[in-house]
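My current task is to audit a protein record that another person submitted. What it holds is a sequence and that sequence's fold in C-alpha coordinate form. Thanks in advance; the entry in question is below.
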Amino acid sequence: MSEPDRTSASELPPARDPWEGDPRLAEFFGDAWAQVERFHRMLVDEGELRGLIGPREVERLWERHLLNSAAVVPFLPESGLVVDVGSGAGLPGIVVAAMRPGASVVLVEPMERRTAWLADVVQATGLQNVEVRRARAQELDGAVEADAVTARAVASLDKLFRWTVPLVREGGRVVALKGSRAADELTAAAPVMRKLRLTDGAVHRAPTIEGVEATYVVTAVRGGAPRVR
Protein backbone atom coordinates (compact mmCIF):
# COMPACT_ATOMS: atom_id res chain seq x y z
CA MET A 1 0.00 0.00 0.00
CA SER A 2 1.34 3.41 -0.92
CA GLU A 3 1.98 6.02 1.75
CA PRO A 4 -0.72 8.71 2.07
CA ASP A 5 0.17 12.17 0.82
CA ARG A 6 1.07 14.22 3.89
CA THR A 7 1.87 17.42 2.04
CA SER A 8 0.79 20.32 4.25
CA ALA A 9 -1.12 23.32 2.96
CA SER A 10 1.96 25.49 3.47
CA GLU A 11 3.99 23.22 1.15
CA LEU A 12 1.50 23.41 -1.69
CA PRO A 13 2.37 25.75 -4.56
CA PRO A 14 0.48 29.06 -4.41
CA ALA A 15 -2.66 29.32 -6.49
CA ARG A 16 -2.14 31.14 -9.76
CA ASP A 17 -3.76 34.49 -10.38
CA PRO A 18 -6.06 33.91 -13.38
CA TRP A 19 -5.18 37.35 -14.73
CA GLU A 20 -1.44 36.68 -14.71
CA GLY A 21 -0.09 37.05 -18.24
CA ASP A 22 -3.33 38.41 -19.68
CA PRO A 23 -2.32 40.87 -22.45
CA ARG A 24 -5.30 43.08 -21.63
CA LEU A 25 -3.56 44.21 -18.44
CA ALA A 26 -0.70 45.88 -20.30
CA GLU A 27 -3.17 47.41 -22.74
CA PHE A 28 -5.34 48.77 -19.93
CA PHE A 29 -2.50 50.30 -17.91
CA GLY A 30 -0.74 51.69 -20.98
CA ASP A 31 2.29 53.84 -20.17
CA ALA A 32 1.94 52.97 -16.48
CA TRP A 33 2.27 49.24 -17.13
CA ALA A 34 5.97 48.79 -16.24
CA GLN A 35 5.56 50.52 -12.88
CA VAL A 36 2.28 48.80 -12.00
CA GLU A 37 3.67 45.39 -12.99
CA ARG A 38 6.76 46.00 -10.81
CA PHE A 39 4.48 46.97 -7.92
CA HIS A 40 2.48 43.79 -8.46
CA ARG A 41 5.64 41.67 -8.39
CA MET A 42 6.72 43.28 -5.10
CA LEU A 43 3.32 42.52 -3.57
CA VAL A 44 3.58 38.89 -4.71
CA ASP A 45 7.11 38.51 -3.37
CA GLU A 46 6.88 40.53 -0.15
CA GLY A 47 3.28 41.56 0.53
CA GLU A 48 2.30 38.67 2.78
CA LEU A 49 5.72 38.50 4.46
CA ARG A 50 5.53 42.18 5.40
CA GLY A 51 1.96 41.92 6.66
CA LEU A 52 0.41 43.98 3.89
CA ILE A 53 -1.91 41.41 2.32
CA GLY A 54 -3.39 38.10 3.44
CA PRO A 55 -2.20 34.77 1.97
CA ARG A 56 -5.34 34.37 -0.12
CA GLU A 57 -4.95 37.78 -1.71
CA VAL A 58 -1.86 36.90 -3.74
CA GLU A 59 -3.90 34.93 -6.26
CA ARG A 60 -6.33 37.79 -6.81
CA LEU A 61 -4.09 40.85 -6.68
CA TRP A 62 -4.93 42.04 -10.17
CA GLU A 63 -8.70 41.83 -9.94
CA ARG A 64 -9.34 42.61 -6.29
CA HIS A 65 -6.63 45.17 -5.66
CA LEU A 66 -4.77 46.65 -8.62
CA LEU A 67 -7.61 46.92 -11.11
CA ASN A 68 -9.91 47.92 -8.27
CA SER A 69 -7.51 50.76 -7.43
CA ALA A 70 -7.28 51.80 -11.08
CA ALA A 71 -11.06 52.31 -11.15
CA VAL A 72 -10.61 55.53 -9.18
CA VAL A 73 -8.21 57.15 -11.65
CA PRO A 74 -10.77 58.60 -14.12
CA PHE A 75 -12.25 60.63 -11.25
CA LEU A 76 -8.92 62.25 -10.34
CA PRO A 77 -7.25 65.28 -11.96
CA GLU A 78 -4.39 64.75 -14.42
CA SER A 79 -2.34 67.41 -12.63
CA GLY A 80 -2.27 69.15 -9.27
CA LEU A 81 -2.03 67.53 -5.84
CA VAL A 82 -3.66 64.20 -4.98
CA VAL A 83 -3.50 62.91 -1.40
CA ASP A 84 -4.09 59.22 -0.69
CA VAL A 85 -5.21 58.78 2.90
CA GLY A 86 -4.49 55.52 4.70
CA SER A 87 -2.37 54.33 1.80
CA GLY A 88 -1.35 51.07 3.49
CA ALA A 89 0.20 48.79 0.88
CA GLY A 90 -0.08 51.58 -1.70
CA LEU A 91 -3.63 50.94 -2.84
CA PRO A 92 -4.74 53.00 -4.61
CA GLY A 93 -1.93 55.56 -4.19
CA ILE A 94 0.86 53.80 -6.08
CA VAL A 95 -1.48 52.88 -8.93
CA VAL A 96 -2.76 56.47 -9.06
CA ALA A 97 0.77 57.87 -9.19
CA ALA A 98 1.70 55.54 -12.05
CA MET A 99 -1.42 56.37 -14.06
CA ARG A 100 -1.38 60.11 -13.29
CA PRO A 101 2.29 61.04 -13.89
CA GLY A 102 1.40 64.73 -14.23
CA ALA A 103 0.01 64.89 -10.69
CA SER A 104 1.89 65.10 -7.41
CA VAL A 105 0.76 62.26 -5.15
CA VAL A 106 1.19 62.23 -1.38
CA LEU A 107 0.78 58.85 0.34
CA VAL A 108 -0.38 59.34 3.92
CA GLU A 109 0.07 56.37 6.25
CA PRO A 110 0.50 56.35 10.07
CA MET A 111 2.28 52.98 10.47
CA GLU A 112 6.07 53.06 10.23
CA ARG A 113 6.47 49.61 8.66
CA ARG A 114 4.00 50.56 5.94
CA THR A 115 5.68 53.87 5.18
CA ALA A 116 8.98 51.96 4.91
CA TRP A 117 7.32 49.63 2.40
CA LEU A 118 5.89 52.56 0.43
CA ALA A 119 9.32 54.16 0.25
CA ASP A 120 10.75 50.88 -1.05
CA VAL A 121 8.04 50.68 -3.72
CA VAL A 122 8.62 54.27 -4.83
CA GLN A 123 12.34 53.59 -5.21
CA ALA A 124 11.88 50.25 -6.99
CA THR A 125 9.29 51.56 -9.46
CA GLY A 126 11.11 54.79 -10.18
CA LEU A 127 8.05 56.93 -9.51
CA GLN A 128 9.11 60.58 -9.49
CA ASN A 129 5.81 62.16 -8.46
CA VAL A 130 5.32 60.56 -5.02
CA GLU A 131 5.91 61.75 -1.48
CA VAL A 132 5.39 59.43 1.50
CA ARG A 133 4.27 61.01 4.78
CA ARG A 134 3.95 59.17 8.05
CA ALA A 135 0.89 60.78 9.60
CA ARG A 136 -2.80 60.49 10.20
CA ALA A 137 -5.08 62.53 7.99
CA GLN A 138 -6.20 64.62 10.96
CA GLU A 139 -2.59 65.69 11.57
CA LEU A 140 -2.27 67.28 8.13
CA ASP A 141 -5.05 69.84 8.55
CA GLY A 142 -3.52 73.09 7.29
CA ALA A 143 -0.40 71.35 5.97
CA VAL A 144 -1.77 70.36 2.56
CA GLU A 145 -4.34 71.76 0.17
CA ALA A 146 -5.19 69.00 -2.27
CA ASP A 147 -7.08 69.08 -5.52
CA ALA A 148 -8.37 65.63 -4.62
CA VAL A 149 -8.16 63.27 -1.67
CA THR A 150 -8.69 59.58 -2.23
CA ALA A 151 -9.09 56.60 0.09
CA ARG A 152 -9.81 52.88 -0.13
CA ALA A 153 -11.26 50.79 2.68
CA VAL A 154 -10.36 53.38 5.33
CA ALA A 155 -13.63 54.22 7.11
CA SER A 156 -17.34 54.84 6.62
CA LEU A 157 -18.07 57.93 4.55
CA ASP A 158 -19.20 60.07 7.47
CA LYS A 159 -15.87 59.51 9.24
CA LEU A 160 -13.87 59.73 6.04
CA PHE A 161 -15.39 63.09 5.14
CA ARG A 162 -14.54 64.49 8.58
CA TRP A 163 -10.92 63.37 8.21
CA THR A 164 -10.33 64.36 4.61
CA VAL A 165 -12.31 67.52 3.85
CA PRO A 166 -9.85 69.76 5.78
CA LEU A 167 -7.15 68.56 3.36
CA VAL A 168 -9.08 69.56 0.21
CA ARG A 169 -8.99 72.99 -1.37
CA GLU A 170 -12.20 74.87 -2.09
CA GLY A 171 -13.63 73.30 -5.24
CA GLY A 172 -11.54 70.15 -4.79
CA ARG A 173 -13.06 66.74 -4.28
CA VAL A 174 -13.05 63.69 -2.07
CA VAL A 175 -12.93 60.47 -4.11
CA ALA A 176 -13.49 57.21 -2.25
CA LEU A 177 -13.46 53.60 -3.41
CA LYS A 178 -16.42 51.81 -1.87
CA GLY A 179 -18.41 48.58 -2.04
CA SER A 180 -21.95 47.78 -3.06
CA ARG A 181 -23.45 49.71 -0.11
CA ALA A 182 -21.92 52.98 -1.27
CA ALA A 183 -25.29 54.62 -1.90
CA ASP A 184 -26.50 53.78 1.62
CA GLU A 185 -23.30 55.19 3.12
CA LEU A 186 -23.66 58.37 1.11
CA THR A 187 -27.25 58.82 2.30
CA ALA A 188 -26.22 58.26 5.93
CA ALA A 189 -23.42 60.82 5.56
CA ALA A 190 -25.76 63.60 4.37
CA PRO A 191 -25.79 65.53 7.71
CA VAL A 192 -21.99 65.52 7.83
CA MET A 193 -21.80 66.64 4.22
CA ARG A 194 -24.05 69.62 4.93
CA LYS A 195 -21.94 70.59 7.94
CA LEU A 196 -18.72 70.35 5.93
CA ARG A 197 -20.19 72.11 2.86
CA LEU A 198 -19.75 69.10 0.62
CA THR A 199 -21.88 69.18 -2.51
CA ASP A 200 -22.57 67.03 -5.55
CA GLY A 201 -22.28 63.75 -3.69
CA ALA A 202 -22.56 60.92 -6.21
CA VAL A 203 -21.95 57.19 -6.56
CA HIS A 204 -20.37 56.02 -9.81
CA ARG A 205 -20.16 52.48 -11.11
CA ALA A 206 -16.55 52.23 -12.26
CA PRO A 207 -15.62 49.34 -14.59
CA THR A 208 -12.08 48.49 -15.72
CA ILE A 209 -11.53 45.37 -17.87
CA GLU A 210 -14.34 43.19 -19.15
CA GLY A 211 -14.71 40.22 -16.83
CA VAL A 212 -13.68 42.17 -13.72
CA GLU A 213 -16.47 43.13 -11.38
CA ALA A 214 -17.02 46.89 -11.42
CA THR A 215 -16.40 48.78 -8.23
CA TYR A 216 -18.09 51.89 -6.87
CA VAL A 217 -16.53 55.32 -6.53
CA VAL A 218 -18.05 58.06 -4.38
CA THR A 219 -17.26 61.68 -5.21
CA ALA A 220 -18.12 64.91 -3.43
CA VAL A 221 -16.98 68.51 -3.94
CA ARG A 222 -15.88 70.88 -1.18
CA GLY A 223 -17.77 74.17 -1.13
CA GLY A 224 -19.67 76.01 -3.79
CA ALA A 225 -23.25 75.62 -4.97
CA PRO A 226 -24.46 72.27 -6.29
CA ARG A 227 -24.33 71.91 -10.05
CA VAL A 228 -27.61 71.53 -11.89
CA ARG A 229 -28.02 67.99 -13.25
